Amino acid sequence: MFRKSCLILLLSTFYFLLSASSVHAQFGKNNVRYGQLDKVYPSFRFDIRHNLDTEDPRQMEYLRQVVDNLERARDWMGGPAVFNHNIEKRIPVFFYKTHTDMESSNLVGGFLPEGVGAFVESERRRMVLKADFSKPLGRAIGVHELVHEFQFDIYNPNLLQRNVIPRLPNGWYEGCAEFIAGLYDPHTRDDIRRREQRMYASNPRLLPTWLGLNAGSANPYTMWSMIPEFLEEKFSFGTEFCVEPLKNDVRLGEFVYDKVKGELGNPDVNSERFDQQHRHYWGTEKGYEVARINSSKPYDENDYFKGRTVTPYGHPYPMFSPILSADGREIAAFSIQDNGVALIRYLISQEGGYLSKEDREKIKDKNLLSQFSNSSLIKNLTPQLPPVPWEYIVVQGLETWPFNGFDAAWSHDGKKIAFFARINRDHALVIIDAETGKIIRKIEFEDPEFRLDQAFSPSFNADDCWIYFSAAKNIQRDIYAVSICDPHIGRMIQVTDDERFDTAPSVSSDGSKIVYVGSDDDFQHLFLYDVRRGEIEQLTFGSFNDSSPSWSDDGTTIVYTSEENGLVWKINTLDLATLTVKQWPELMGGAYTPMFARRTMDTVYYVTFRDDDQFQDQIYFNFEVFEAKLKKPVRQYTVAKKEAGSFVFNPNRDLFRINLDSNQLLNPKKPPEDWACGGGNIQVGVNTYYGMFGQSYFGCSNILETKHHRGLVALYGNFRLIDYSYVNQEKRTTWVWGIHQYQLPLYYQFYDAVHRYPRQNILNNTWMKELSLDLFTQYPLDKFNRWELFSKLGHRSYNVFGYDTADLDAGILDEADDVFTDQDVQLFKFMKNSNGSNLSFGAAYVRDTVLFSGNTWGPFHGNAFRAQVEFAPPLGEEFQGFTSVNVSARTYRHLGSSSLLAGRVEVMTSTRANGDFILLCGPDRLRGCEYGSIVGNQIGYVSGELRFPVPWTYVLGTPVRGFLFGDAAYTGFNDERFSVRKIKTYGFGFQYFIPLIGLPAQSVWNRENGKWNPTFYITLHW
């Protein structure tokens, strides 16, 4: 019996998956494919699929650089210096113009944080890259992913080996990839990896132990990569540490033990000796611990500056990209609020801060008091929850990689704030009322002439009618401007047109000049654009990076950050008249996005990264806004103008240049599909219970995962499940066609792991037989809205108690009214009338904006809606006609971070029986009544829930959540004399995970006849 139950559960799962694959009757968000990789460039050992215009010299050069970087790095990496290994296969590379294209690839599925710069998937070893980065960062990311290709080629563990019994920790793969890539092409910016390493290394108590690293409790890109660097510098085997464990069946701790003859011990057994030397190396030998002790603190007063925090008191969250109000009294910055990343506004506290008790009692205005007490009131200007009106706000360091510049701008009249947010395809400009947060305008850059990607760093011009910003067009990043005033709202102009990866524009107060950051080969420096003359002048030079410039009010001085002299971001000021640079003290956590206070050039507001921020009794890492009153620079010099061009020479990369094959470019070939097929579970046999049986499945997909063939065959006695479908997702519109034959007990669709069979006598003794040809297509309007169209040509028949329903009369059931209920009779008639063939056509509109959260174990906030109409014309005696309408809506409203209200409405109606019905009384609808005891094809259902965490409750370490619910429904069948049934239930329950096996479960009590009746389900909330 247990074997039979398991088989039924397995086959019912197969049926559910096949039914779900038809897509309609489902919610869900969309993968909007804005483009496709329709070209391929085969280099020596890579097949690079792309959608670049190789007739454009700049795009062709970018492709050449990608080929050159990967081929050169593969030569070096495969040689004796690193892996000493040759990858025999050609490596497929998917190279996308921008994040949006990469995100919409079928390898990703439509949603991917912008912080993911690239990846390699291990099954077919496809490398995915995007062109959103500066030249040195793009190279470093590509080399990092190439390390993964070697790792997978040498040792590619299966799912069990990697996640259940891993020989090599997951963090080791990323840390070693970062270390090896750094040997070839190190990051040139401090805020990419190096800052976090320095901060941890400067405080040995914070550096993760070997045990912590292996447990996955630290950032693998930064903390794990410090291990091979330490081993290389101290013992000359960091590279071996990242290679030999791949080639030999050896644990990392044992490998370390043997390489240094026990000097570090075996850290897998006892890591104390290893951890001590690791901490000593970074803290003492590299000098970070001493540097931390001796470095200036942002709250210091010394010979160089006087500092204080201007972060709101009691605000524990990081602050990014602060901007100053027109009157200089307030700051707006990006931080974390209940709705996630948000733009907040607050008054700057005044220096000094003490008020006598008498004075405090005189001041009644809390806003005024906050200026003195540093307990500023925070106003959230963007309280909306995504995805309406945006999917996320663009903030460097929170949502995206660090570029340069400020992520918001405050207008000169103080009335507007501008920032970028992800809306539809890409970043859109959002302008809000600075006082209320009301959205004034949203501008998406979709004009064919100015279809821009990855817009950053807005800056108002002098009259607040134009906003300058950085954006990419066909890979090349330049400075643009857009009009936000009548009569030219949305008008665009391109300000720069060069290959310098221009970012971070800042307009002077009189609007005559724009300072911005441009690439000078491998480094980023300041450039000045004269608006009137259209001339560009380079301001800074050298083998270091500059970032985030802004102006003094009088337009004579620029404040910015620079990595010059120490590779840590420091505040610099530049006098434009004399080209005098003043460098201010270095902070251990660096300085970011500085700006002058109003009407001064000796007071600067900026962000720094601290390891000693405090909230209540917690001391932790955080980004905070500080003020510095500048006194005396630590260094001062005059810029020496010289020929542009500074890069890090790498003989493995720079001695030779790989050029593209012009013949391939002039005679492009259609990319091959490169199909890969798989299958399994092929069984054929016979036994005394089922007779002949067989089972198999297969699937084939092309290299881009845009075309799929899928099939399944399962035969057990009279049971028959044969299904084939073809899916095409090459373009924005998805097409699916399929053919299937089902012959199975009807209750397989409703089999429950706990309650097993529905309490329906007719349903449990009915077999369904169906043969159909299906066509389905969907067009996504955006990620959250879509249209669906479908058609089905099929024949369906039912067999009850071994008899064809077409040969039976319902009167037989009426005569046995002591055995069959009214609903049994209704269901029998429904099935009898559903016999026959249909040619149906349908359409549906679907909207889904539901956010999910681990705190609520499912939906957190948002709405889901689906409206579907299906029509089948009557075509002779065999083809029956009907019209059906299905509407389903759900809403979720969060109450804090862990509780929510949930509501649900469903309506289903049809002009006649067509085989579609809904089963009530179960974990999904109408809880508490006898499982599956109510059924109908005329349904109205409504449900409401309050879901909340239950404090101090755990089931073997797993928290418990509670809920209160109320359900109501009416149900019946069309064209029946029986009255409509109306049911109401209410009660409470608990959601938890069953210990050891980990299945989600609910214990529910509903009120019935004055009693509380318990029911148990294995399910999650809808």
UniProtKB/TrEMBL annotation:
The keyword Mitochondrion does not apply. It comes from the Bacteria. SUPFAM superfamilies: DPP6 N-terminal domain-like. Keywords: Signal. The keyword Signal applies. Pfam families: PD40 (PF07676). Residues 1-25 form the signal peptide. InterPro entries: 6-blade_b-propeller_TolB-like, WD40. Belongs to the TolB family. This is Bacterial surface antigen (D15) domain-containing protein.
